[in-house]
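Minutes, structural biology subgroup

Action item carried over from last meeting: produce the structure token record for Lactococcin 972 family bacteriocin (Brochothrix thermosphacta). EB confirmed the sequence was re-checked against the source entry. Recorded below for completeness.
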Amino acid sequence: MLVQKVSRTGRCIRILSIFTLTFSLFAAMPLNAKALDAQGSDMARVASGPKDGGYWIRGYKWAWPLEQVVSEYKHYTKRSHGSVVNGNGTYNSGGWTKSKNRFSRATANWTPWGTNKAYYDSTK
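Output recorded by EB:
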């Protein structure tokens, strides 16, 4: 009877230690690494920088209720165009800008399947 009690206690301690270790590892990992932009809305996984004589912002952005694929491009001396394609194959164009140094903005709903892509272009 004493042996049975000890083995039950040992089993409970093992289960409790595994649960505690699992919970502490889970609690230490960030669930969602997002930052806030100047307006206070969530921005995630967005990259930006100079590209081919202009400035390109691309990536994924949270826009309630869905996450969106984003492409915003402006060329400093030419007309510009930004476009996106989501995993369903839905294409969205930001249209050609009427003048230089203006952003062409395109968004589409992000999908967990397929390829979500952002593109840019400028006139010659």
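Discussion: Confidence is low (pLDDT under 50) at residues 21-43.
Next step: EB to file the record with the rest of the batch.
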